Amino acid sequence: MELYSGYLDDHFNPHKLSIAGSAVSPPEYMASASPAQFAAAPLRMGYGRPAPAPPPPVMGMWSSEPFRVDSGSAHATSASTVNTKLEETRLEDDVVALEPARSTEQETSRPPERAQRRLAQNREAARKSRLRKKAYIQQLETSRMKLSQLELELQRARQQQGAYANSGSMGDSALGYTCPIDPGVAGFEIDYSHWVDEQKRHTTELTSALQGQQTSELELRLLVETGLSNYERLFRIKAAAANADVFYVMSGLWKTPAERFFLWIGGFRPSEVLKILSPQLEPLAEAQRMLVGGLQHTSAQAEDALSQGMEKLQQNLAETLTAEADPFGPPDPYMLQMATAVGILKELVNFVTQADHLRLTTLQQMHKILTPRQAARGLLALGDYFQRLRTLSSMWAARPREAAGRQMSRGGKKDDDGDDNVLLREEVVRATGSSLPDCSHACGACSPCSRVMVSFKCSAAEPLPCPMVYRCMCRGKCYPVPSS
Question: Where is the BZIP domain (predicted)?
């Protein structure tokens, strides 16, 4: 074992004490010794340090003063001082040890910057997720509404296609050929129905704006521009429909019967509309009245030019179809003639486009001549005029009509549907094998019933004593069996 330097000089070394005790008597500090011996003896606590020449006076471990053991009281005082210093040092160490713990707890209770940043990112991600969820729900609701609207439009388009087929294609099929419905026509029907709804809404807005006292000129101007843009959109979709089927647009099948009565090249006459709306625009200034009159005259001249062009087109088409070409001869001249006629018909699209352009130009010129309030009144009167035409058509369609076959001529002459009744009577007689009963005992109605009364069991007559009843085929009612 290697000994450190100063090992033998250490007075507290037990090995040295044991070696010294084996040769001589116990050391002096073990016996009663004088304090001077303790004072003279050096005290060294430096482990692993070289000890140079005589050390300085031994200093205390926790004090800058050397040990002084002069007496018992001095020894006790130094011991108490040492204990006090030791206790203070221990308290200082405890305080130093507690301060890092407290700071660690504070750091734990307060999240560091990275944790705060992560929390902020999580909150932002949650906010974006809620926004995406809200947008998704709104998109679903919008899609549901669009789906419902498309279903209604599809149902309306089917009804309109059926009406169009009944008015056009069914008649063509009766003549031996069919005319398929163009998809562009069906799309135009849907777009036009939307335009009518939009026009009704715009008319309501114009009415409210004109009735309100707080409506400014700027608001009226915006409403007028919106109305003009609606008419421009109508003419645009009409042009697309004319390219698909020009005869459909020219014939006005997309309009009501009352509107078709005033039809001119697929629409209204601008000069006639100006003549109708002029009283609604009063009071007009003298300059405005002159400009409106000039516009009406110009529109009438343009209408005459288009009408003359249409007449010329009809004449050319008739001449082309009546040219010398034998339909039973070689096919080439005949097909060439038909191709020429088809080319002439394509010019009808240009006439429809020019007529719509004249209508739109007339409305725009009126907008420039009139004030915003006058222009709003004019658009309101125009929309109300077309709406009244549509209402008139609905009332005409719902008018009361007499049932077919109800009227009969006097003097035993057969009525209008006598032929049908005779055929039905023959079928009933053939099926029952007996003559028909007298109608006067059953329903007491018209004489045609005597030829169409059938004896059968009617479920609606169960409460009667006898379930056998007669049914009047012309009135569609059941009557009990006549008493004998």
Answer: 112-156
